[in-house]
C-alpha cells in the first residue's frame, strides 16, 4: 500500500510540545559558572495590540540563536517582558472609557499567548511588566539616587502646549503646528520640568563608541551625530545702542570677514527682549508663535528660509560694518548658543536666507584654481581674500590664526560644543512612573523617603483629554511634608517611558529582588548583554539612554561594567509588495488574490514594496499564518526569506514553500521510522551512496553551524538543510542503510531544531529519542569527511570559459596544468596558437593566455 501523508498535524504537535516545555520548565535559567554564559535579549514590546510581523521577526531571530547556543553548551539567559507604560493606554482610556491598567494587562495577555504559540523559548519566570508598581518603584529609587548626586534637576524649558487639551504634546503630536487630538493651534510655552543630566557623561558616551565593535556602523554613526561634538570658536558681537552682546558658536572662524547679518533662534532668551516696546515687536511675537507650531525636523529640512528682522543691529568688529539681527527658525536653540553669524557666501542655509531677504553676500574665500560658484555658497577650503592680515592665507590655516587673533583681542575663545542636551523626563500624563518628590512651602522640593516607595498611580483619575489626569485626583496631590509636617503638594508629572526601558535588562536578571532594583552579584555574572536584537529606529534614544543609565549605575557602585550591549543586530523591516492595476493604481496582494480588481486576461504588474503598518492596512496577522500553516512554518519563512538585517518582503508563495518543505521532512521520517527503530544506530555508512550522504551530512552540519554562529545567515543555513533533504529523497535506501539512516535522521532533526522546534521534537520522539531535542548537543562535523573528493576546475582561454574538468581535491598546480593541457577539447581550441602563459587559481580555474 502506498505511503501518503499530505499534511502533518502541526496544530496538534505544536500545542503538545509547548505544554510539555512549560510543564517541565525546560527554559528556566540559573547562574552556572561551569558553563560559558550568553545573554540574548530582544527589545521588549509595547503591548498596544497583537503581535505584528516586525515583532515575530525580531523574536524568531533571537529564539533561533538561543536554541542553537543552548545546544552548543552555553548557559543562556533569554527573558521577555512588556514596556507597558505610555500614551496609547491613556488614549484608550479617553476614547473607550476603559481603565489604562485593565486595557494594558489585556493587551499583554494577548501578546504573551501569541509569543507562546510561536514556541519562543523564554524563561517566563523572569517576566517583567513596567506598569507593575514593583517595577516602577525602582524607577523612582533610581531617580532619588540621581537627585542625591545632582544628576536629576528641575528647570524651565519650552514645550509644545495645547490650550484646548491643557497638556504638553510631543513633537509627533504637534505635527503641522496643530494638536493631533483636537486640531487646536499649538503654542510654545515654558514650563518647569525635570531633567536627567546626561551631558555629564557626554564625552564618555562619545569616546566609548569606538569600543562597540559588535555594533552596526550605521548605528555608531547615528549616535555620534546625535551627540554632535564640534570644535569651534565662541565669538561675542556688540549690539548697537545696548550694553549686551550676542554670543555665537562657529566652526568656520575663517569666514568672519564675510559676516553680513546675525540670526538668533526664536527660543533665544534675547529674541523678545530685543524688540520690547519697539517697532518690530508684534511681527517678532507672531513669528515666534508661528515657529512654535513646527517640529525641529521641519525647521531643519525646509528649503524656504523664513525669518523676521528685529530692527536691531550689531557691529562686526572684524570689518567695522553695521549688520542687522534677524530671528529665523532655521537656527535651533538646541545647538551651539542659539545664535549664528551669517556668512551667506560660505554657508548654504545663510545663502538661501540672504537670497530670500535680499541681504548682502560677501565672498572672502575663493578656490585656489577657478572661480567660486555664483548660484550657491562656496563651502570648500580655499584662498582667503578681503580678510585684513589673513588675506592670501589658506583658509584651513586661517582658522587657527583667526582664532588666536580673537582670543588675543578678548572677543571670544576656542571651545567644544555638543548637540546633545540634558534629557527632559517630565510628562504631563497619567500612565507613567510618578516622579517621587513633593513640594512644601517651607522646605521646597522634598524627595519622597525610600521606605515610602513606590508612589503608586491612584485610582479614580478622570480621562477627559483635557490636562493631566493626575491633577484630578485630590487624594493623590494633597500630602504631608515628612520634613516639617506641613501640608505639601505631590508632583503630578510622570517620567518619560524611556526611563522604563533604560535599565530593564538588569531587572530580568533578578526580578524577585525586594530591597534593591537588582542583585549586583547576579548582574555582574550575566552582563553585559551578549546579543541585543531590535529595530534601528531605536538606534539613538533608547540605546543612548541605556548607556547613560549604565554609567550612572556603575558610578553608584552597583555594577562593575560600563557598556550594556556587546553586540547589536538591527533587523530589517517586513514589507508587503503591491500590484499595479490600471485605473486603480497599486493595490494589496489580497485584492489581487481575491480577483477583486484584477483585469480579465491582463497580467498584474508588481509594484514597489511598502513597510507593513496598520495605518496602510497592509499588515499580515501572524495568528492567521499560525492557524493555516503552524508556528514552525512561520518561523522558517521569517528566517529563510531574507538575511536578518535586510528588508523581508512578504510572500504567500514562500510561506507555502516552507510549509511544503516541513511536510517533506515529516513524510520522509514517518516513512522509515519503523525500519530505523528496529535497528541499532550505526555511525558507519555501509554502501557507496550512503557514504555520499554522509559527506553531504557533514558538509551541511558545517554550513549550518558556521552560518548561525556570529554570522546570522539563517537563510543560507536553511537552504543547506533543504538541499540535504533533497539528497535524502534521491537516496536509494536498502536494508543495509537503515542503521546509518537512523544516525542521519537524528542529525537532521538536531539541525532543524532551532528553526522549527516543534516538528523537531515530534520527529525525535518518532525515531525513539528519549530527551527533548532542545536539550541535546549540537552535532559536530568531521572536516575530513566534509571535504569533497573531487573539485571542478574551470578552464578559460583568454579569460573566457571554454570547458570544465573534474579533478582530485588535493591536486597540485603542475598536475592541474598537465590534465588541462592533455584534454582533447582544450587541445582542439589551442591548436596552432602560441601559449603566452598559464594562470592557475588553486582549486578553481586554469586560464590559458594565447598570443
How is the secondary structure organized here?
Elements: H1 10-23, E1 37-42, H2 53-71, E2 75-77, E3 81-82, H3 87-96, H4 100-117, E4 128-129, H5 133-148, E5 152-162, E6 167-169, E7 187-196, H6 202-207, H7 217-227, E8 230-239, E9 245-250, E10 261-264, H8 281-291, H9 296-301, E11 307-316, E12 321-328, E13 339-342, H10 348-357, E14 365-366, E15 383-384, H11 395-408, E16 412-417, E17 423-424, E18 426-427, E19 437-440, E20 444-447, H12 474-477, E21 478-480, E22 487-490, E23 494-495, H13 504-507, H14 520-526, E24 531-535, H15 541-555, E25 568-571, E26 574-576, E27 579-581, E28 585-587, H16 589-593, E29 605-606, E30 610-611, H17 622-629, H18 631-640, E31 648-649, H19 652-677, H20 688-708, H21 714-730, H22 738-752, H23 757-766, H24 783-786, E32 790-797, E33 800-808, H25 813-822, H26 824-830, E34 835-841, E35 845-850
Parallel strand pairs: 1-2, 1-24, 3-4, 10-12, 24-25, 26-31, 32-35
Antiparallel strand pairs: 5-6, 5-7, 7-17, 8-9, 8-11, 8-16, 10-13, 11-12, 14-15, 18-23, 19-20, 19-22, 21-22, 26-30, 27-28, 27-29, 32-33, 34-35
Helix pairs in contact: 1-23, 3-4, 17-18, 18-19, 19-21, 19-22, 20-21, 20-22, 22-23
Summary?
Helix content is 35%, strand content 19%. By secondary structure, it is α+β, with helices and mostly antiparallel strands.
Amino acid at each position: 500500500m502506498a505511503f501518503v501523508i499530505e499534511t502533518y498535524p502541526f496544530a496538534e504537535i505544536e500545542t503538545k510540545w509547548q505544554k510539555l516545555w512549560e510543564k517541565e520548565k525546560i527554559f528556566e535559567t540559573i547562574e552556572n559558572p561551569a558553563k560559558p554564559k550568553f545573554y540574548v535579549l530582544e527589545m521588549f514590546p509595547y503591548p498596544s495590540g497583537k503581535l505584528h510581523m516586525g515583532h515575530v521577526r525580531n523574536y524568531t531571530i533571537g529564539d533561533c540563536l538561543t536554541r542553537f547556543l543552548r545546544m552548543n553548551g552555553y548557559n543562556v539567559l533569554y527573558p521577555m517582558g512588556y514596556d507597558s507604560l505610555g500614551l496609547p493606554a491613556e488614549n484608550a482610556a479617553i476614547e473607550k472609557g476603559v481603565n489604562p491598567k485593565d486595557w494594558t494587562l489585556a493587551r499583554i495577555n494577548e501578546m504573551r499567548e501569541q509569543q507562546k504559540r510561536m514556541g519562543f523559548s523564554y524563561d517566563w519566570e523572569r517576566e517583567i511588566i513596567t506598569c507593575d508598581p514593583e517595577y516602577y518603584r525602582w524607577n523612582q529609587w533610581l531617580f532619588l539616587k540621581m537627585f542625591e548626586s545632582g544628576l536629576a534637576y528641575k528647570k524651565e524649558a519650552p514645550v509644545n502646549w495645547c490650550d484646548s487639551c491643557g497638556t504638553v504634546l510631543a513633537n509627533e503630536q504637534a505635527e503641522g503646528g496643530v494638536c493631533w487630538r483636537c486640531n487646536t493651534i499649538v503654542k510654545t510655552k515654558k514650563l518647569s520640568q525635570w531633567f536627567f543630566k546626561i551631558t555629564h557623561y557626554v564625552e564618555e558616551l562619545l569616546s566609548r563608541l569606538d569600543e562597540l565593535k559588535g555594533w552596526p556602523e550605521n548605528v555608531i554613526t547615528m549616535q555620534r551625530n546625535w551627540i554632535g561634538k564640534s570644535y569651534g570658536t565662541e565669538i561675542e558681537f556688540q549690539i548697537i545702542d545696548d550694553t549686551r552682546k550676542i554670543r555665537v558658536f562657529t566652526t568656520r572662524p575663517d569666514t568672519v570677514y564675510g559676516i553680513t547679518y546675525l540670526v538668533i533662534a526664536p527660543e533665544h532668551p534675547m529674541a523678545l527682549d530685543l524688540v520690547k516696546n519697539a517697532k518690530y515687536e508684534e511681527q517678532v511675537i507672531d513669528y515666534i508663535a508661528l515657529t512654535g507650531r513646527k517640529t525641529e525636523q521641519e525647521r531643519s529640512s525646509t528649503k524656504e528660509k523664513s525669518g523676521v528682522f528685529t530692527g536691531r543691529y550689531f557691529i562686526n568688529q572684524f570689518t567695522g560694518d553695521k549688520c542687522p539681527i534677524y530671528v529665523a527658525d532655521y537656527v535651533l536653540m538646541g545647538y551651539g548658543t542659539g545664535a549664528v553669524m551669517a556668512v551667506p557666501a560660505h554657508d548654504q542655509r545663510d545663502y538661501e536666507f540672504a537670497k530670500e531677504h535680499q541681504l548682502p553676500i560677501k565672498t572672502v574665500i575663493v578656490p585656489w584654481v577657478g572661480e567660486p560658484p555664483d548660484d550657491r555658497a562656496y563651502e570648500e577650503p580655499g584662498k582667503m581674500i578681503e580678510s585684513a592680515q589673513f588675506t592670501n592665507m589658506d583658509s584651513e590655516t586661517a582658522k587657527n590664526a583667526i582664532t588666536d587673533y580673537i582670543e588675543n583681542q578678548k572677543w571670544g575663545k576656542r571651545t567644544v560644543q555638543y548637540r546633545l542636551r540634558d534629557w527632559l523626563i517630565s510628562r504631563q500624563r497619567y500612565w507613567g512612573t510618578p516622579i517621587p518628590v513633593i513640594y512644601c512651602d517651607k522646605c521646597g522640593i522634598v524627595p519622597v523617603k525610600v521606605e515610602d516607595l513606590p508612589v503608586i498611580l491612584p485610582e479614580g483619575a478622570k480621562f477627559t483629554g483635557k490636562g493631566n489626569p493626575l491633577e484630578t485626583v485630590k487624594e493623590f496631590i494633597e500630602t504631608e511634608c515628612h520634613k516639617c509636617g506641613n501640608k505639601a503638594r505631590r508632583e503630578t508629572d510622570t517620567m518619560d517611558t524611556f526611563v522604563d526601558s533604560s535599565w530593564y535588562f538588569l531587572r530580568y536578571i533578578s526580578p524577585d529582588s525586594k530591597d534593591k532594583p537588582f542583585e549586583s552579584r547576579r548582574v555582574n555574572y550575566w552582563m553585559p548583554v551578549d546579543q541585543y536584537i531590535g529595530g534601528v529606529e531605536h538606534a539613538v534614544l533608547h540605546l543612548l539612554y541605556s548607556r547613560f543609565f549604565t554609567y550612572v549605575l556603575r558610578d553608584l557602585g552597583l555594577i562593575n561594567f560600563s557598556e550594556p550591549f556587546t553586540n547589536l543586530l538591527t533587523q530589517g523591516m517586513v514589507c508587503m509588495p503591491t500590484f499595479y492595476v490600471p485605473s486603480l493604481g497599486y493595490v494589496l496582494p489580497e485584492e489581487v488574490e481575491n480577483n477583486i480588481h484584477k483585469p480579465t486576461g491582463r497580467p498584474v504588474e508588481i509594484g514597489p514594496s511598502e513597510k507593513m503598518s496598520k495605518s496602510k492596512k497592509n499588515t499580515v496577522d501572524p495568528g492567521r499564518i499560525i492557524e493555516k500553516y503552524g508556528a514552525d512554518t512561520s518561523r522558517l519563512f521569517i528566517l529563510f526569506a531574507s538575511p536578518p538585517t535586510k528588508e523581508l518582503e512578504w510572500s504567500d508563495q514562500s510561506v507555502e514553500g516552507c510549509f511544503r518543505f516541513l511536510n517533506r521532512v515529516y513524510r520522509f521520517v514517518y516513512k522509515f521510522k519503523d525500519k530505523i527503530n528496529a535497528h541499532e544506530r550505526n555511525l558507519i555508512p555501509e554502501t557507496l551512496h550512503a557514504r555520499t550522504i554522509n559527506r553531504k551530512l557533514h558538509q551541511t552540519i558545517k554550513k549550518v553551524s558556521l552560518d548561525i554562529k556570529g554570522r546570522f545567515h539563517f537563510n543560507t543555513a536553511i537552504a543547506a538543510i533543504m538541499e540535504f533533504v533533497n539528497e535524502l529523497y534521491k537516496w536509494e535506501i536498502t536494508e543495509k542503510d537503515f542503521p546509518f539512516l537512523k544516525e542521519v535522521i537524528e542529525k537532521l532533526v538536531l539541525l532543524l531544531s532551532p528553526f522549527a522546534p516543534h516538528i523537531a521534537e515530534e520527529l525525535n520522539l518518532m525515531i525513539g529519542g528519549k530527551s527533548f531535542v532542545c536539550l541535546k548537543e549540537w552535532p559536530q562535523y568531521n572536516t575530513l569527511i566534509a571535504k569533497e573528493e573531487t573539485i571542478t576546475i574551470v578552464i578559460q582561454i583568454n579569460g573566457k570559459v571554454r570547458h570544465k574538468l573534474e579533478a582530485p581535491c588535493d591536486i597540485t598546480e603542475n598536475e592541474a596544468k598537465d590534465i588541462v593541457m592533455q584534454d582533447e577539447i582544450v587541445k582542439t581550441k589551442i591548436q596552432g596558437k602560441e601559449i603566452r602563459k598559464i594562470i592557475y587559481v588553486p582549486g578553481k580555474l586554469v586560464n590559458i593566455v594565447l598570443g
